[in-house]
């Protein structure tokens, strides 16, 4: 399970783009993709199958205005966080960017530490929204749709509400084992009639759906008195 987030940097300033990419990917913190035009950015987003988690978008690009591009992306239904970057400190510019659908707005020159903090804040907010998309093993996981999508094959796996809740909670555990009692409480709440057998049945059915090896545990592991998502796939 790769829990790293992917960032798309859209800026035609090669120097700034290179520095940002190096700083953000340092220590394998983020996967970084770059685009120097709006056309290239649209291409990257189109083929990403939901794997881009946040966009850093410059205002002035060779083929258009970043704010107009942001507004167009929102009209198409793109919900991931967008942070607009600009050389202007003018309040009207900030308002235009936010009105276009940007989540945040940073003026150049900015401090990389502050930018990283803003990125983390936007990702935290987004991960608690209904529009969030996760990577789990070979799948793109869309909790709002109760669905896993396998980009290589085009396979779509439909999940029940409980299966969706189990995967979402395990993903947020970051590869750490979650005890059965904790998972029962988080997914089912306090219900006297619900036992660990109920959970084990759901785990079994979930494995039948998502494990490529005839249900053998490779993605969804039994570990530490509970379950976790394999951090190495």
UniProtKB/TrEMBL annotation:
Organism per entry: Bombella pollinis
Superkingdom field: Bacteria
Protein name in the entry: Response regulator transcription factor
Domain (OmpR/PhoB-type): residue spans on this chain: 131-231
Keyword Transcription regulation: no
DNA-binding region, residue intervals: 131-231
Keyword annotations of the record: DNA-binding, Phosphoprotein, Two-component regulatory system
Positions bearing 4-aspartylphosphate: 58
Cited PROSITE patterns: OMPR_PHOB (PS51755), RESPONSE_REGULATORY (PS50110)
Domain Response regulatory residues, every copy: 6-123
């Amino acid at each position: 399970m790769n829990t790293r987030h992917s960032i798309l940097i859209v800026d035609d300033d090669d120097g700034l783009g290179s520095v940002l990419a190096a700083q953000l990917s340092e220590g394998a913190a983020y996967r970084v993709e770059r685009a120097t035009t709006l056309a290239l950015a649209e291409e990257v987003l189109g083929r990403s199958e939901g794997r881009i988690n946040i966009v850093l978008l410059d205002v002035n690009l060779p083929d258009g205005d970043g704010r107009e591009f942001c507004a167009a992306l929102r009209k198409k239904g793109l919900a991931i966080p967008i942070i607009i970057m600009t050389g202007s400190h003018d309040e009207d510019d900030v308002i235009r960017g936010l009105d276009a659908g940007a989540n945040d707005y940073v003026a150049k020159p900015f401090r990389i530490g502050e930018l990283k903090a803003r990125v983390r804040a936007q990702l935290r907010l987004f991960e608690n929204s209904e529009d969030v998309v996760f990577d789990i093993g070979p799948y793109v996981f869309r909790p709002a749709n109760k669905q896993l999508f396998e980009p290589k094959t085009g396979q779509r796996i439909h999940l029940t509400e409980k299966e969706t809740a189990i995967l979402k909670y395990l993903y947020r555990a970051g590869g750490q084992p979650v005890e059965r009692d904790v998972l029962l409480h988080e997914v089912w709440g306090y219900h006297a009639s619900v036992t660990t057998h109920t959970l084990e049945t759901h785990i079994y059915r979930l494995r039948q759906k998502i494990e490529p090896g005839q249900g053998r545990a490779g993605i969804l592991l039994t570990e530490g008195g509970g379950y976790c998502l394999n951090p190495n796939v």
